[in-house]
Amino acid sequence: MISRCSRGLSELSRHSCSLILRGLSTAAAASSEKSETSRINLCTAVNEALAIALENNRKALVFGEDVSFGGVFRCTAGLLQRFGKERVFNTPLSEQGIVGFGIGAASLGCTAIAEIQFADYIYPAFDQIVNEASKYRYRSGGEFNCGGLTVRAPYGAVGHGGHYHSQSPEGFFTHVPGIKVVMAGGPADAKGLLLSAIQDPDPVIFFEPKMMYRTAVEEVPKGKYTIPLGKAKVKREGTDITLVGWGQQVAVLEKAAALCLERHDISCEVIDLRTLLPWDVAAVEVSVNKTGRLLVSHEAPITSGFGAEVTATITKRCFARLESPPLRICGYDTPFPLVYEPVYMPTAQKIIDAVEHSLQY
Amino acid sequence: MALLRGGRQKVCQLFKSHVTRQSSVGQRCFSAEPAPKESDDSITVTVNPFKGHRLEPPSRDVQTNKKELLDMFETMVRMRRTEIAADLLYKQKLARGFLHLADGQEAVPVGIEAALDFKDSMIQSYRDHCTFLGRGGSVKELFAELLGKKDGCARGLGGSMHMYKREHNFFGGIGIVGEQCPLGAGLAFAHKYRNDGHVAMTLYGDGAANQGQLYEAFNMAAIWELPCIFVCENNHYGMGTAERRASKSAAFYTRGDYVPGMWIDGMDCLAVKQGVAFAKQFVLKNGPIVLEMDTYRYHGHSISDPGSTYRTRDEISGIRRARDPIEHVKTLLTENNFAEGSDLKKREKQIKREVEADIEAAKDCEFPPIEDLWNNIYKDGLKAKLRPIEISKPKIQL
């Protein structure tokens, strides 16, 4: 069972990393055997992935609002200068148009990498994603597809983003067969996952945790590498309970796990799903069979969030093994608030509290 | 006076050479010349010519008087000081979130309110501080909202992007650009249905002019002949993208195609007043109109945008010199002997102090109660309770 878990670790060669975010530091491991690494942040990692994609594939395009000057988060900095305005270009303020246009270009073989400036703005494109991108291959009996489409969007809370700069809409997209949904949780993962997403034969929605663009820094392998989609990663091994999350919430889980051990002598296993659609059911099942307890955490509101899917599936698969009911510590069922953000967020303290209750069940 | 006029023309010419891509931005200086007074305090001012699309624009001669000009001056100064103070508050991290300032664009709301009344409805996207003040909102309410306090116009729950004023039919303050356009058509429908003689105005920017839902709104308003005034506040940049790189046609007043339209010098509050007064009468008889206000924002798109990576500082200062809306009204007041320059300066200083006092008063207000987290999601409250698990009280701050 443990060897199946560590398969998740082997794709990314071990490297020493420290996340500045929330003062977290994981145990240093040996440096990479494969290639050199550089210490960069998530934004630069994404930028490197885009540059590699553009360099290796002459049909790759990067487009979206304000990407020419580097984008609002600087993820596309320097790409226009390197690859030219035929391939890196601004679009008008038209999300529906951006994604629809990307679908069209992809169906004729382009590798269309579209950027939606904030995930909160993705909804005008929802129809295109759900009714066009996800169904193209299916409704044409395999004659056509738009697998070359990747839609990138920064998501998640930043501390003061309010209603329209903080949302986590991943739950809406996991409900759509035909697309894939990927959540990057750190710089090294982001680069490898994005390169996989770009070359994946199906359309991918790629969410990047905007709070981590500058704050998450780690050793990231240079050059090209990919991390397979659909594979979770065990970030911290443990024995008493399995904590499942994705994106920037994983750092919160890791912090909670460290405090659980320190304060309550509880050993938590932390899993970063990395891909939500399709998600690595086997990895979570293996872990919960080991620990007997499950807690899923995400920033999006709890009702019908992706945590519900994880909980339902694992409950069915591990029912006899479960020692306590699976828990979800998520955002409340309110619009993402402005002033109340610190109260709304699924904080480490809330997770610790829930873990304690679970262990006492 | 001649020197001033000649000087202004010189600046315009100098400025023309700095303008590279945006040919339309700097070439229009005010053509207003002081005209002989008809009575003691009313004058006629000639504004830059309007441009019409499928309609005959109104006359360039605008009637105004001392009181109106003084009111406009004070309101614009108050708006300007508010924006500058808001910028400082954010830099001090006392207010947080996203801030979109409209200094430079003050003439638009001021001119609009001179032509409409508070029974006409208005809806806009997030660059709404000045519009809120124009709609009769108070500076204290505005700052309380920025600081997240319960005396703010949205009880502290909206922040900078979501200013509202129910009593004066200001429907906000919308986050997603273009979303407010079909809403505006709906507001206009309600006015027509109620037959109340009022209109709806929906404002959007040059960036949002490429959103599909705007054209859906145009078509609906046109088919049903709704009294809707669509206003494109064209400040020439959608975030960091210049209008010409985002829009095949940057003549936004024509983008309604079958919907008649008009271009207005948006840096001149008198031109705006004249244009909007004409538009109100027009839509009550004929259905929708599209107005384009040619305006400019001095700050960047938002607090995190320095505003200089996609335009030159020369362009910004050139417009400030040649077309600043407050300076223009000051000139009209002094040249027509309605006020002394020194009095106006004194009044500006006074307003600055009033704004600062309002900020202090806003800081003293309380934060909203924690129950507001789950109020107003549905009509009936969620009847939730919050059980604190942290040792300290949950700290509400931005």
Give the largest interface: A-B, 38 and 48 residues
Number of helices of chain A: 14
SSE succession of chain B: HEEEHHEHHEHEHEEEHEHEHHH
Helix share of residues of chain A? 25-40%
How many strands appear in the DSSP assignment of chain B? 11
Q: How does the helix and strand content of chain B classify structurally?
A: alpha/beta
The main sheet of chain A comes to:
7 strands, mixed
Strands of the biggest beta sheet of chain A: in what spatial order? 5-4-6-7-9-8-14
Figure out the total of helices of chain B: 12
Characterization of the model:
Chain A is α/β, with parallel strands linked by helices and 361 residues long. Chain A is 36% helix and 20% strand. Chain A is built from 14 helices and 16 strands. In chain A, the strands form 4 sheets. Chain A has a 7-stranded mixed β-sheet, with helices on both faces. Chain A has a 5-stranded mixed β-sheet with strand order 11-13-12-15-16, with helices on both faces. In chain A, β4, α3 (79-83) and β5 (88-90) form a beta-alpha-beta unit. The radius of gyration of chain A is 20 Å and the shape is globular. Chain A starts with a helix and ends with a helix. Chain B is of the alpha/beta class. The interface between A and B is large, with 38 and 48 residues.
Keywords:
heterodimer, A: alpha/beta, seven-stranded mixed beta sheet, five-stranded mixed beta sheet, globular, disordered N terminus, B: 398 residues, alpha/beta, 11 strands
In a nutshell, what does this entry contain?
The complex is a heterodimer of chains A (361) and B (398). Chain A is of the alpha/beta class and 361 residues long. In chain A, 36% of the residues lie in helices and 20% in strands.
